[in-house]
Specification:
Helices cover about 50% and strands about 15% of the residues. Strands 4-5-6-7-11-10-9-8 form an 8-stranded antiparallel beta sheet, covered by helices on one side. It has a 3-stranded antiparallel beta sheet with strand order 1-2-3, with helices on one face. The chain starts with 15 loop residues before the first helix and ends with a helix.
Length: about 525
């Protein structure tokens, strides 16, 4: 059977012009990521704290460099895609175009809302979108790792950060306590506090190990790429990274408690990362016996090369997107509103208020935009009041946290009752019996203006409250507590304290509502 002769030979020397223009368009559109302090200017003052401990974000320029390195390693695959432009399924082209459109939309929202971290998600969508259009699913699979790097490096919104950090603080303290028990060392563990002899160690947010987990997952992704490991080994390393980071961090805190009783952040951070990477490498070496490294196939050119219309179209599209970003202006968070004194009452009937200061070390990232902290007295009765007023335009911080219901570090909850839940979770009221330093407390804790943690996370991630034309609103969390003394109170005493809290609570809730309305109008 005669074969049809070739009508054209494979193109030699890939036409890199369209690919270079495409790269330039994507880079210009995402130029906000090329600044070291794109998300938080505190990098300039506390670089080592953010790199090793603070559970905020990885420096964006570092992530961009890692992504660029991975794409460069796969440059031959991209060149072959541009050179051959082999036919793709319509579904791949449509899905790639949809991802590119999503990337452009995220960029637009980021520029308009002043949310530069959305550029990370935009780039994470742009890479597989471009790959699907140029070379189909085979090429898009090569963008999985850089896209995961970008998504994982996106700063966690405040509600999600709080939901993850506080339980991790408690787990770290319990891990250290378990190690002390195994070693036979006398200690007392109470919430996030560890007592060993006369030394008291508080597992604050930077000791919780969330940053260590973020860093080690990134290291696992990069290590798998550097070793060119098969997918099964990469997945195992990524899954092992969080528990491994937790164990390393517990060991670090244990070392501080038993040996140094001080923090040397830079040295400890370097050692923790180095130990983690070394352990991941050892695990991968064991896995390599079962799943050896794969060599990158060079591939060959298809017999019938097509034109470069697709890369040219993509390059033109991204150059247009890059030009549009220049019209939208700088991708920077909006400046904070001027802070005026809060017109909060200092007297509620016979109760008089004086200023107090909450434990900011304990609260950590819970710190809201505006706060009220008062001590209340009426005769021989006393109470404490803390009001967190949350500007929902501040995406990295949130008062939506379990910590706001706890008196302070070392407090223990005896019981928690939810006695009101209205308006689809936007008003959530708890009655809590607590114990702290031998004294019993009855606490009323309520929040207004918040949705669930999941919905607040999505709202913050999408910069919803920064969208042009969106009405601004403040949310609030209130904690009102009455101490009952050191003797174990009777049920009648609990009921009298509960009645007092309800009486005070009505006035405080109304004052907080009025203050929220005033602040919204000032915006």
């Amino acid at each position: 059977m005669a074969t049809r002769p070739r009508t054209s030979a494979p193109v030699r020397g890939a036409p890199l012009g369209p690919l270079l223009l495409l790269t330039a368009g994507v880079a210009i559109a995402h130029r906000a990521l090329l600044r070291w302090d794109a998300f938080d200017p505190v990098y300039r003052d506390d670089a080592e704290g953010h790199l090793f401990y603070d559970p905020t974000t990885t420096p964006p320029v570092l992530v961009v460099l890692l992504v660029a390195w991975i794409v460069w390693r796969r440059r031959e695959a991209w060149r072959r895609a541009v050179r051959s432009a082999s036919p793709s399924r319509p579904s791949s082209l449509l899905f790639g175009a949809a991802l590119t459109a999503a990337a452009a939309l995220l960029l637009g929202v980021g520029y308009r809302a002043g949310a530069p971290d959305l550029a990370l998600l935009s780039l994470a969508a742009a890479l597989p979108g471009i790959a699907l259009v140029l070379g189909g699913p085979a090429l898009a699979r090569g963008t999985i790792v850089p896209s995961l790097l970008l998504v994982w490096s996106t700063p966690p919104p405040g509600p999600l950060l709080n939901a993850a950090t506080w339980p991790l603080q408690l787990a770290t303290a319990e891990g250290v306590a378990a190690a002390l028990r195994l070693a036979g060392i006398d200690h007392v563990a109470r919430l996030d506090l560890i007592f060993v002899g006369d030394y008291v160690f508080q597992v604050i947010e930077t000791c919780a190990g969330l940053r260590a987990q973020q860093s080690l997952v990134l290291a696992a992704l990069v290590l798998g790429e550097a070793l060119d490991a098969p997918p099964i080994r990469r997945v195992v390393m990524v899954l092992l990274a969080p528990p491994l980071a937790f164990v390393i961090n517990v060991g670090r805190v244990l070392w501080i408690v038993l040996v140094t009783q001080e923090t040397a952040h830079f040295t400890q951070g370097l050692v923790a990362v180095a130990v983690g990477v070394a352990l991941l490498g050892a695990v991968d070496a064991i896995l390599a016996r079962r799943w050896p490294d794969r060599s990158r196939e060079a591939g060959s050119d298809p017999a019938d090369p097509r034109s470069t219309r697709r890369p040219r179209a993509l390059a033109a599209a991204w150059l247009v997107i890059a030009a549009a970003t220049a019209v939208l202006g700088a991708m920077e968070p909006p400046p904070p509103a001027p802070r005026r004194p809060l017109a909060f009452p200092t007297r509620f009937d016979e109760w008089r208020a004086s200023g107090a200061r909450p434990d900011l070390t304990f609260l950590g990232s819970v710190g809201a935009e505006r706060t009220v902290s008062l001590r209340l007295r009426e005769g021989d009765r006393r109470a404490s009041l803390v009001v967190w007023l949350d500007d929902r335009r501040t995406r990295s911080r949130s008062a939506l946290s379990g910590k706001t219901a706890i008196l302070e570090s070392g407090a223990r909850r005896l019981s928690v009752d939810r006695f009101e839940d209205g308006d689809r979770g936007r008003v959530d009221v708890l009655r809590i019996r607590s114990w702290l330093d031998g004294e019993y407390h009855l606490v009323h804790h309520w929040r207004a203006g918040f949705a669930s943690t999941g919905r607040e996370t999505v709202r913050a991630l999408a910069a919803f409250d920064r969208w042009p034309g969106r009405p601004h609103a403040w949310a609030s969390v209130v904690r009102l507590s009455i101490p009952l003394g050191r003797a174990h109170p009777s049920e009648a005493e609990w009921q009298r304290a509960d009645a007092t809290l309800r009486e005070l609570g009505r006035s405080i809730e109304e004052a907080t509502r009025v203050l929220r309305v005033q602040l919204t109008r000032e915006r």
